[in-house]
Amino acid sequence: MSRAGNIKAARQLFDNMPTADVVSWNSIITGYWQNGCLQESKKLFYLMPGRNILSWNSMIAGCVENGSVDEAFEYFKAMPERNTESYNAMISGFVRWERIDEAGMLFEEMPRKNVISYTAMIDRYMKTGEVEKARALFDGMQRRNVVSWTVMISGYVDNGKFDEARDLYERMPNKNVVAMTAMITGYFKDGRVEDARVLFDGIRYKDLVCWNAMITGYAQNGIGEEALKLCLEMVMLGIQPDNLTLVSVFTACSGLASVKEGRQIHVLVIKNGFELDLSLCNSLITMYNKCGSIGDAEQAFREMSGAGLVSWNTIISAFAQHGLYEKAIDFFNQMEVVGVKPDGVTFLSLLSACGHAGKVNESMDFFDLMLKKYGIYPRPEHYSCLVDILSRAGQLEKASKIIQEMPFEADAGVWGALLAACSVYLNVELGELAAKRIVEWNPHHSGAYVVLSNIYAAAGMWDEVTRVRLQMKEQGVKKQCAYSWMEIGNKVHQFLGGDISHLNTNKIHLEIKSISLQMKALVTIAETDLLWSGFG
């Protein structure tokens, strides 16, 4: 009964027992902490007439499960005797709550180690990036189970060692869905999307974690259409998505700027009762923002319960990206009123809002407020944004001075902001300086060469234009192609600059010519009407 969540009925049955044996006591104690009632487990434990080693182990596991690791260790130290399971429970607890050093010390003290002990320590080493130590333990194990293999493979994947993970996976005697899922994640991290799909399709019984790995992999690799298709297939098979599924699907919709599918997934959020999940709500706001539906983003924020710092930052950033300066400032003020303390991300969004609105003085005020009121030291991205604002306003000398006074070396982003403005305001001297600094950071940054060449061309300095182009050729720098995409009839079409591979390229070119001719005709008619109006 307690395992089924009916702890009240279990307690009633326990209380009505004429004499409860140690097994009954252990069962009710375990049942309480499994249902989140650790305090009641403690009360019963101290009332228990004759505890055995399983009673103590249950309390250790209960404290660990409920995040009370220090209390778990107190029970461990107070035990009259300990067995291997006692050590394993405590070591696993330390590893789970990232008390890595304590886990290591307890493992060394352990008189008899088994496969669970070794696996817990392998997990510990993998989490701290000590991959070689983990492998040494794994190789030294006399007996391994499927969990040992899976932890080792997952650890390799998490530490970016996919080749080692694949080699170990091929040696694994009995492959399970958990190991296969880890490999799917590894394939995606390695950019091997097709291999991930082949492995996924070969899994006979897929669990939700496996589906999520595939959907997340597609979304993170910019293949949003496949992520959406897979989510639909999963739902049609009767597998209910969880919050991780929906976050990944919102990421896919954001990448595709597909608000129609985003709204459909929003319905799933409501249908499955995930409206209170903050991370999911934040992804929902981001999705609406990136799809251009800022009104829906604001509505989603207003419907949230208990918005935290990340949520406020998400909506303020959305307003900033859409050039809604007044909205961004209004929500920042509301944020202060409800007692949510801003961070560097908040102020970066505010500076961005100032940039879109051309608010130079206000940007300087926010820059000062960040440090003087909240003690937040500006990072390179804050300086980059401020330099961009000043540069766009034509205050190039002031922008240059701020760069020189920065407490750290300016990166390519800061110099890039100045260089772009030098192109607009035709400041050759500062443009040369900015381009030189960018190339020092990245010798193959095509943008710096192109913009500097344009500055020289605008200034009539053709010898310098030739020199820059020759320099690009010598360095092997090529101008990056632009691309765009649009959604038509539930299908996303991508276009790359100069690419003619699209199936309907000829039709598209004919349509563009037709539109161009119509526009010219309208201009001609307007000019004719204007001409005749002079004779009226």
Q: In words, what does this structure look like?
A:
The chain has 536 residues and is mainly α. Helices cover 71% and strands 2% of the residues. It has a two-stranded antiparallel sheet. Strand 1 (483-488) and strand 2 (491-496) form a beta hairpin. It is elongated, with a radius of gyration of 31 Å. 37% of the residues are buried.
What keyword list fits this structure?
mainly alpha, 536 residues, single chain, two-stranded antiparallel sheet, elongated
Secondary structure layout:
Layout: H1 7-15, H2 22-34, H3 38-47, H4 53-65, H5 69-78, H6 84-96, H7 100-109, H8 115-127, H9 131-140, H10 146-158, H11 162-171, H12 177-189, H13 193-201, H14 208-220, H15 224-236, H16 243-256, H17 259-271, H18 278-290, H19 294-302, H20 309-321, H21 325-337, H22 344-357, H23 360-372, H24 380-392, H25 396-405, H26 412-425, H27 428-441, H28 446-458, H29 462-475, E1 483-488, E2 491-496, H30 505-533
Antiparallel strand pairs: 1-2
Helix pairs in contact: 1-2, 2-3, 2-4, 3-4, 4-5, 4-6, 5-6, 6-7, 6-8, 7-8, 8-9, 8-10, 9-10, 10-11, 10-12, 11-12, 12-13, 12-14, 13-14, 14-15, 14-16, 15-16, 16-17, 16-18, 17-18, 18-19, 18-20, 19-20, 20-21, 20-22, 21-22, 22-23, 22-24, 23-24, 24-25, 24-26, 25-26, 26-27, 26-28, 27-28, ...
